[in-house]
Amino acid sequence: MARKVLVLPGDYIGPEIMEEAVKVLRAVDRRFALGIELEHGLLGGAAIDACGVPLPDETLAQAREADAILLGAVGGPKWDGVERHLRPERGLLAIRSELQLFGNLRPAILYPQLADASSLKPELVAGLDLLIVRELTGGIYFGEPRGIRTLENGEREGYNTYKYSESEIRRIGHLAFSLARKRDRRVCSVDKSNVLEATVLWREVMEEVARDYPDVELSHIYVDNAAMQLVMRPKQFDVMVTGNMFGDILSDAAAMLTGSIGMLPSASLDKDGRGMYEPCHGSAPDIAGQGKANPLATILSVAMMLRYTLGSAEAADTIEQAVSDVLDQGLRTPDIHSEGTRLVGTAEMGDAVLAA
Ligand code: NAI
Ligand code: MG
């Protein structure tokens, strides 16, 4: 059965890292006879330049057809001047919500070879393997009404709306619990139910979902304490489930525990397990065009795509093992480079993974 993968390279370093990831994807496709068909499309600034909008209808149609989407990164200073609703990042928000990619999986895994790159002491992060499950299509990033208005007294007021429906909470809860079953069977739900009513409901619904998973342990934590615990004792967590905004912030914090954002993949899944896969980092305009970008986050996103959507755990394992082997060989792009290791560029790193 042919499986369609839509490749959206995006902007700045996007196309550079994507080239390496596509090399690796083609190689595992051949080796494991996966029958993957690749198609390329435009999103973000690249789409603005070609068609005037960040998410062209054609891209959306391609995305709906595809089983999985592999995305580089979008945005950058070139499009700073365009109107807010046409900005590259809007294309990303739109594709996530159009496809109802509500389940954002952000693993934070510390590779033992990179223990010295973490901002924390090695003993605090050695063996770290946590998964943040972030709700991606609801909450305050999408809530209406929103905007900036002028009050009667002439003062301006900015406002957004934090809301989650029961069904939105339930589906992200089920995703988190079912993933926990394949791991250490612990889910920690993050809320702010001491202050925000919307998250009182969040906590209640998580308790209800937990009844379907008697073998998985559920705990709750307030988001401020979660931030503290993440930098104090990160290894206490297995799966953390939370809303859009809290998840955005906590997953970036968790990312840095592992050393470099250049190492971290992510998945965004819909209810049927179709999904979009992308590195956690942005388009890194500061290093674009210099062959310095670390392609491993995107290559590891390919592995997640094989595991979660394309159903080939064997191919996923092979890629993850190859990445580990390359780190063992001492190869490092500038973002993870330290004394005694070998500095390489984007393409050389991609080729090394391919060889491994
Ligand atoms: P960024 O993640 O692009 O860069 C932050 C820092 O990390 C920079 O110093 C960059 O050089 C470095 N970095 C990022 N990826 C790297 C890699 N693969 N290898 C080595 N170093 C890497 O975040 P920033 O600078 O805040 O945003 C730049 C642009 O990217 C903005 O337009 C932003 O809106 C966009 N962005 C897009 C995202 C996406 O497409 N999903 C996510 C985050 C930001
Ligand atoms: Mg973010």
UniProtKB/TrEMBL annotation:
NAD(+) binds at residues 76-89, 282-294. GO terms for molecular function: 3-isopropylmalate dehydrogenase activity; magnesium ion binding; NAD binding. It is found in: Cytoplasm. Pathway: Amino-acid biosynthesis; L-leucine biosynthesis; L-leucine from 3-methyl-2-oxobutanoate: step 3/4. Binds 1 Mg(2+) or Mn(2+) ion per subunit. Its cofactor is Mn(2+); Mg(2+). Substrate binds at residues 96, 106, 134, 224. The record marks 141, 192 as: Important for catalysis. Pfam families: Iso_dh. One of its GO terms (biological process) is L-leucine biosynthetic process. This is 3-isopropylmalate dehydrogenase. It comes from Pseudohalioglobus sediminis. The lineage of its organism: Bacteria, Pseudomonadati, Pseudomonadota, Gammaproteobacteria, Cellvibrionales. The gene is leuB.
